[in-house]
TrEMBL record:
Pfam annotation, one family: GTP_cyclohydroI
Quaternary data: Homopolymer.
Identification of the protein by name: GTP cyclohydrolase 1
Key words, A-Z: GTP-binding, Hydrolase, Metal-binding, Nucleotide-binding, One-carbon metabolism, Zinc
Biological-process GO terms, alphabetical: one-carbon metabolic process; tetrahydrobiopterin biosynthetic process; tetrahydrofolate biosynthetic process
Residues annotated to bind Zn(2+): 77, 80, 148
EC number: 3.5.4.16
Amino acid sequence: MSKELEFENSVKNILEYIGEDVNREGLEKTPSRVRKAFEFMCGGYKQDPKEIINQALFTSTNDEMVVIKDIEFYSMCEHHMLPIIGKAHIAYIPDGKVVGLSKIPRIVDVFARRLQIQEQMTEQICDALHEALNPKGVAVMIDARHMCMEMRGVEKICSTTVTSALRGLFKREKTTKDEFLSIVAQSLHK
Ligand SMILES: Nc1nc2c(ncn2[C@@H]2O[C@H](COP(=O)(O)OP(=O)(O)OP(=O)(O)O)[C@@H](O)[C@H]2O)c(=O)[nH]1
Ligand SMILES: [Zn+2]
């Protein structure tokens, strides 16, 4: 049996388990729709962040902080496979090269489109940028809502989780870190 069919049969098992009639018309294509949705939502496993960044690296003498704020993303927690919905705020200080701006949200999606815990996703984005750009510093802050804490479990719909990862100047210099925090503060969930 193909892997695709195995996946679709697993979806049918879940539908049966929750008490659905897998043969009713509305559910006929659901297993294959779910498979395609998962292939998209977990497409990050097949992507290489270095390859993405290397497509658009430009020599530059600029060494001022570059901040890309409010990068929305959808991920899934590895414990419940329920959505994590949030925003990433990313800054770096170039050291001889800058990256095409669109590549930063692409890197966020590479790691968001995997099963995640928020702390790990924050670190992975930071490390990927640090390794590929070799900048003077990188900072990543993620502010997200976890559906496993809203739709079920503790059912706290107003709580958000903020995580950060800092490298280089952002870690060593308080003024650099504070500048990043003041730019990002306005974007955090109220
Ligand atoms: N640190 C961290 N924990 C997470 C993240 N996403 C979900 N969790 C937590 O993972 C934990 C799993 O705990 P368990 O006790 O094994 O699972 P559970 O019985 O479903 O727990 P409840 O959610 O409290 O009902 C829960 O406390 C979740 O809130 C994340 O991104 N980071
Ligand atoms: Zn969860």
